[in-house]
Design a protein that fits this description.
Endonuclease, Chain A; single chain; alpha+beta; 4 domains; seven-stranded mixed sheet; Arc Repressor Mutant, subunit A
Length: 390
Amino acid sequence: MDTEILKEIGLTNGEIRVYLALFSLGSTSTGPLIKESKVHASKVYPILDRLIEKGLVSFIKEGKKTIYSANSAITIFSYLDKLQNKLKDQRKSAEKLVDDLEKLKLLEKTNIEATLFKGIKGLKTAYTIAIKDLKKDDEVYEMFLPTVTNKSLSPFLINLVTSLSKKNKVIQYMLFNRDCFESEKAKKLPRVKVKIGVPQEYKSPAEVCVYGDNTIIATTGGKEYITILIKNKEIANSFKNQFSAIWSQDVIVSHGVKALIHAHEKTYQRLSKGEEYVYLGIPNYQPAEHHEYWKKDHEKRIKAGIKCRLLFNKDADKEILKDRNTYGGCDARYMETDIKTPSYMNIFKDTVVISIPKKNPIVIEIKNKEVASSFKGYFESFWKQSKKLK
């Protein structure tokens, strides 16, 4: 058998040996697999994880044992399709990089006035200079706004935003990082538009603010205060474009356990007492530490007076459902239809959060009323066919 193509599409020698061994053995635990593939025991688990991620291998739990099996050989085509899509995305990213580099080259020919300030006094001076030429109804853009770590600096920045709003009468668009308490005060001001929850990949201890042709980059969320004031129209416009792209997006993709928690906690920020959220396609297996987190999460939900309906996959552990149904305002059932998916969905109001619970979870947040309504329709359809725990 010529397996060279497997190497050409990106499989390592170890992955190829384990993959072929699974075809020879059929469904198996790791013991026979290690012997057949001649791959060291310490390496077989990460290899299996990679093959599962590529969609070539699947597993089931039989008691305490994990049984692995190779998916149908035709899934190699699915993997190839995924690689081709990835190449298309990389091509788009490369095109954007080339475009950005060309813009930087053009900037070399323009006059750029940049000043570096150090310390809190320097930071205050930079902001005072940056805003002095603003006129009524001008628009300013402030993004990646972190929680201010210095107590003496926080009143200055709050007064600055308040003065721009009430005295200068400019329009402010403010993108705050998650968990930034200053956002609550900004929301109450006139001519201030606030969004919270900058995606994890953009999160930074430094904020970027654009006032006319002035751009400020300041480490207001750090321990040392360094502020750069740049006076250049092209650079200011570049940051405005970046701001607009983030501000207007309906889809946010983020990674990690913290992203998973943040996305879910938005549920409580957007729902009122008596409203509900629903979950569709909860996987049959969840690590013990996840159970502990969800227990605490339900305590928050109950305290907020929010209800929920949970639809687990058909082969879900009935003890999990029994546990969930002991929580107030929770109705947990399992789907009669046997659907296997690596993801599950939280649907509330105009938002769908799709979570892929891997070692490094992927979270896709879609804020779109039509999409949310569509997924809610799927949920209700499955809910009508669902089974209550007897």
